[in-house]
Amino acid sequence: MDGGLLNSKNMYKSWTDCLGAAHFALVFALWSALAYAGVVSNTFLPTPDQVLQTAYRMVVDPAGDNLLHHALISTLRVTVGFFISAVLAVPLGIFMGTLPKVRAFFEPMMGFIRYMPASAFIPLFILWIGLGEPEKVMVIFWGTFFQQALMVMDVTKNVAGELVEVSYTLGAKKLAVFSKIILPASLPGIIDTLRITFGWAWTYLIVAELVGASSGLGYVIIQAGRFLKTDVIFVGILVIGLLGMLTDLIFKLLYRVMFPWLTREGA
Amino acid sequence: MPDNGHKLVIKSVSKTFQTKKARVTALQETTFDVREGEFVTILGPSGCGKSTILRVVAGLVEPSSGQVLLDGREIKSPGADRGMVFQSYTLFPWLTVQKNIEFGLELKNVDKRARAEIAQHYLKLIGLSGFENVYPVNLSGGMKQRVAIARALANEPEILLMDEPFGALDAQTRTIMQELLLSIWEETKKTIMFVTHDVEEAIFLGDTIYIMTARPGRIKEKIRVGLPRPRDYAVKDAPEFLEIKRRILELIREESIKAANAV
Fold first, then answer.
1. Which residue intervals define the domain ABC transporter in the entry (chain B) (predicted)?
2. According to CATH, what is the number of the domain B6-262?
């Protein structure tokens, strides 16, 4: 490969990284300016150091309102709901993508339910399964599952027809085409779908914790809102953002480890 | 040899497609045969049904009428006895070069050592020894098509079907690939059906050229190429080569005039 080209590519990459960091710095500077200069009242916009202090206080707090405790509970809920959804949605999506009859049966109904907001189902879920953990998990599952299955279906459906045809001419039968072509070809897209829908699962978690919860980051945020503790709201939102970024990073790492064949060497 | 020494017999094969608006004849009744070890090229403009013939032989498309016989047996579905190389790059990107070449052998449950030996043999044949563990993403277009040829040959098909395999390559690479293909053919003596829209390519490679015309697709002329073998690029300047080229261009011209007058 051309070394000069690769170098310029690397330089370009570090440049784009800088742009991303610059955006963070810009938002932080704007926040600081507005908060410290007193342009916006402290009640509505806490200063960065206030938020940091509050976060520290909440972490060392041994009582029930411990930040790590709430973050852990939320992470557990979102992981369980997401996991159950993925375990069912990925195989269903694959079958819908490869078998037209399965697709014809499931797609219309799922397309219909997909447009109903998961949060609208919360009263029903509370009536049916109560206020405990299963209800929270159910909200996350309901919000994630249909999108996930339909996205996996699309990934599987769009495997290049030529790859399937060439495998037939190499002697593959239907089952081998499925296991040796369609599965490996759609795996990167499936992992990507999981990464994107995990972000959505976090949204539904907060929705689930806003109603009838006594723990979790969503609960912390809604309680803080009632008592005008803007700094606590900030802490809650930032922690969710950080957790989201962390899972995104893990998925991206997983992607790179699982699919070395997608990237050119040296690029 | 069944059927008077003919490896492949194409008997009154036609193909029509039903679109929303009309019935389209992709291929009019077509009949010809291919001898064992023959290099047949099919030359025609895009949309003349030349790929359709190949896909019918591969078993990927069912003919509307007629039948195709390979070694006297009727073709009804795709199979490992007919290898195919496509114009688009069809290496499996998640497999290394060696695993790609071994793909068909693995399906036949050939054991690991024998597979590796066969793969090595064909890697050497295409001049890519040392590229065993490289993923296709790191190969140039010409290299990808060489591996695709090796993958098809490793399966030891009865016939090799090639659908404009060099169509996406630049002119220099294409010339090199044509010579490489001829040297592979000299060595393996495979029966090859090669589809192209490049007049020089059709003459340079083929023993026999079938010239097709479009709308509806049909074979207009069969031309025997008597050029001596083995051939190299210098043959493209030989008077006999130029004479065949002139004749083909004349045929194509006639056809375009006819088409223009018909409109």
1. 8-239
2. 3.40.50.300
Minimum CA–CA partner of A186 in chain B: B94
Considering its fold, how many domains does chain A have in total? 1
**Kind plus residue range of the DSSP H or E element containing A122:** helix A122-129
Min Cα separation B6/chain A (Å): 22
ipTM of the predicted structure?
0.92
Of A166, A172, A259, the CB nearest to B90: A166
Q: What are residue B224's DSSP bridge partners?
A: B208
- β-strands B65-70, B73-74 pairing: antiparallel
Do residue A171 and residue B80 have CB atoms under 8 angstroms apart?
A: yes
A79 within some domain: yes
- Contact assignment for B83 to A169 by CB distance below 8 Å: yes
8-state DSSP, A10 = H
In a domain, A131, yes or no: yes
Domain ranges across chain B: 6-262
Give the C-alpha distances (Å, rounded to integers) separating B247 from B41, B225, B253, B255.
Answer: 16, 12, 10, 13
Tell me, rounded to whole angstroms, the distance of Cα A11 from its chain centroid: 30
List CB contacts (< 8 A) between B79 and chain A.
Answer: 169, 171
Alpha-carbon Rg for chain B, nearest whole angstrom, is: 19
Question: In sequence order, which residues have a C-beta less than 8 Å from that of residue B120 and are 6 or more positions away?
Answer: B129, B132
Instruction: Find out whether B136 and B182 touch, Cβ atoms under 8 Å.
Output: no
Say whether A261 and B94 touch across the interface (CB within 8 A).
yes
Does residue A254 lie in a domain region?
Answer: yes
CA distance A153 to chain B (A): 20
Over residues B176-233, the pLDDT tens digits come to: 999 999 999 999 999 999 999 999 999 999 999 999 987 778 899 999 999 999 999 8
Lowest mean pLDDT among A2-16, A100-114, B197-211: A2-16
A28 domain-assigned: no
Of the candidates A251, A255, A259, the one whose C-alpha atom is nearest the C-alpha of residue A195 is: A251
| pLDDT (0 to 100) of residue A64 | 62
Mutate to test the interface with B, among A162, A165, A169, A179 (most CBs of B within 10 A): A169
Q: What is the pLDDT of residues A159-187, one digit of tens each?
A: 999 999 999 999 999 999 999 999 999 99
**Domain span at residue A127?**
47-159+186-262
Task: Indicate the residue of A160, A176, A261 with minimum beta-carbon distance to B137.
Answer: A261
Considering only the beta carbons, identify the residue of A162, A180, A187 that sits closest to B90: A162
Mean pLDDT of A228-240: 94
Chain A residues close to B62, C-beta within 8 Å: none
Q: Taking CB atoms and an 8 Å cutoff, what residues of chain B touch A265?
A: 138
Structure tokens at A261: 């064949």
CA distance A151 to chain B (A): 21
Where residue A149 sits, what CATH number does that domain have? 1.10.3720.10
